[in-house]
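Q: My labmate handed me this sequence with no annotations at all. I'd like to see what the chain might look like in three dimensions before we decide whether it's worth expressing. Could you predict it?
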Amino acid sequence: MNDLAYKPNFREVIQRLRLLQSRQAMDRIFASVNVPSAVLEQFARQYGEGFCDYPDPRERAAFWDQFLAERAAIEDDSLPCAYLSEMDQGLYGGLLGGEVQFMAHPENGWISSMVAPLLRDWSEFDRLRLDPGHEWFARYREQLRVFVEAARGKFAISHFILIDGLNFVFELLGATETYLSLAERPEMVRRAIDLAFELNVAVQQTFFEYVPLIEGGTASNMAQWIPGRIVSESVDPFHMTSVEYFETWGREPVQRIFDRFDGGVVHIHGNGRHLLEAVCTLRRLHAIYLGDDKGFPEAFDILPQLRARTGDIPLVLAVDYPRFLEKLNRHELVGGVFYKVSGAPDAAAANRLMEKVRAYRAG
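A: Here is what I predict for the chain of 363 residues:
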């Protein structure tokens, strides 16, 4: 087993995460714990919030090195891993000629990317081609090279989001035209979904060619670690549709790319929880991140009901330190869940919390 310098309890963490993924730990709980960060404070002073230029990959690798080193004293269940936020949504559109824009996020140190719609209408679709020699593929490979070198022996590199299915059509035409096209131009939507599959497979294969697996698994900003080559999927376009639309337009593209690799994880926002039962029937689904959104109950507050709807699939959600600690002490936490706890006062408090987490048994 190759240890990571920024995770002194690496061996124990992998064993615990393997237990979570086995679905034989429904009485156990798992957690990461965030504490105040001087590195994030410095990032906020440097960038602020809003649009910014494309960052130097070496600067971004140095940020993750400093941030994850700062967390090395925290004995939680997280795997220290960098996230390629610069290659988020923008990479996929950039590879097809879109103008990529970047935005800084002081709350987590990310610099995300996005593109405006690439096409005026479907008449321009046939000009789209995947070019492995494109400038953005070169940038992507260079960032992977830089990050792998910076991370070696110290931290991992997380998979990052797919932009396939209707998410990809959003990048081509925008959301409104995408939804209209489901009724008016379904044949073009299907062609776009096929192109999206080709593009996403190329991007993810490149990731796994450069980024070594950790103990035979993929580092994940959501589920931390999962055996095999695992992708990170989004069903966001169906949050605003019926389940029937997901079955018609969403299931096949997700299943197709899960089967191309070793499965995937999915995130579902507060307004997409009506999809839970359908999403849970996807083969090779390894975890669901339950997001929170204004106007909907927080996942933590209705977790028993959500667990009843999702069976034994590992769940991941966010919760603040006081509420988590209260339910932990009252022995009211749901098992088989990875809790992302924010707001612990310091590493000592986080480690005391984790002693209770490791000893906890639900039921």
